[in-house]
Amino acid sequence: MTGITEVAAAVLLRDGDAGREYLLAQRPPGKAYAGYWEFPGGKVEAGETTAEALVRELDEELGIRVLQANPWITREFVYPHAHVRLKFFHVHAWEGELHPHEHTGMIWTRIGETPTVSPVLPANGPILRALELPRVCALTNAGENGIAAELARLEEALHHGLRLIQLRDKGLAAEARRDFSHRAMTLARQHPGTLVLVNDDDALAREIGADGLHLTAQRLMRTGTRPDADRVAASCHNAEELAQAAALGLDFVLLGPVLPTRTHPDHPGLGWENFARLSERLPLPVFALGGMSAELQDYAQTQGAHGVAMLRDWR
């Protein structure tokens, strides 16, 4: 086995009756891992980009013409027969009626639910977990806004669909931060599916029953093994920090600042071109941080972001 086989893989998404759904297709007889379920796609041919390969493969395999596909994450996997690098795309829009021309079946599954079919290709397991992440990450800012006002803002945002929260607030006094975190967690638990991570305080995360931990870039670079938490994320600013997050097997990262912020208006930020370059081959979801707003979410995803992270402008 020599070299790496480049593969374009499609996460087709639609709004089902019970929520957002993705498509899995079954590999046909005669192929490696026949009978396994996978995200459709295929090899990148000579002279093709991964995006071009995606369009061609979905035409050949499913009979559809892609109208909108955003680059997402890249994962490498070593099978007995091949070392593959899979570039996953979120496919949001297409023309034509889906038909499994090269598969023996296909099935839609709600995001967050265990597929009712098996086995699923081993390389796709982490993709299912990454799909569960919401597209907006809110960083709390009680130190600036005041605890009562921030709790009110959080309650309203949860009511309108916010489902991923980082309890930041390291500038608060220890007891005030503890009290705020408990009250924020109580609000979050009233909305099933909400994920809450605590910034850089393992003991507090355990005490309030948070879903995980968020590492600062400084702590990330000092960490040798993944912390013992269900979800672990980190803040990153450069390629070295991103590589460390990937090596530790973290669930997602915040990368930035992408644009100038209110705190540092004279700092130009990474810019979208550098953001896309840095995140292009990462094996984990990346949230764009710095100068973000809800209005930038769709554009951020065209640049490879899973979504956006905001300190001030979430609501």
Entry summary:
This protein has 315 residues and is an alpha/beta fold. The chain is built from ten helices and 15 strands.
**What is the number of strand segments?**
15
CATH architecture annotation name of the largest domain: Alpha-Beta Barrel
Report how far apart the termini are.
51 Å
Could you give the order of strands across the largest sheet?
8-9-10-11-12-13-14-15
At the first level of CATH, the class of the largest domain is Alpha Beta
Overall helicity: 25-40%
Q: What is the CA-atom radius of gyration, in angstroms?
A: 20 Å
Biggest sheet descriptor: 8 strands, parallel, barrel
Please identify the oligomeric state. Answer: single chain
Named CATH topology of the largest domain: TIM Barrel
Counted up, domains total: 2
User: Which class of secondary structure composition applies to the elements?
Assistant: alpha/beta
CATH superfamily of the largest domain: Aldolase class I
- On the 0 to 100 scale, the average pLDDT is 95
Family: Belongs to the Nudix hydrolase family.
GO biological process, one term: DNA repair
GO molecular function: 8-oxo-7,8-dihydrodeoxyguanosine triphosphate pyrophosphatase activity; 8-oxo-7,8-dihydroguanosine triphosphate pyrophosphatase activity; 8-oxo-dGDP phosphatase activity; 8-oxo-GDP phosphatase activity; metal ion binding
Cofactor: Mg(2+)
Task: Walk me through this protein's architecture.
By secondary structure, the chain is α/β, with parallel strands linked by helices. 28% of the residues lie in helices and 29% in strands. The strands form 2 sheets. It has an 8-stranded parallel beta barrel with strand order 8-9-10-11-12-13-14-15. Strands 1, 2, 3, 4, 5, 6 and 7 form a 7-stranded mixed β-sheet that branches. The longest helix has 15 residues, at 174-188. It is globular and about 65 Å long. The N and C termini lie far apart (51 Å). Belongs to the Nudix hydrolase family.
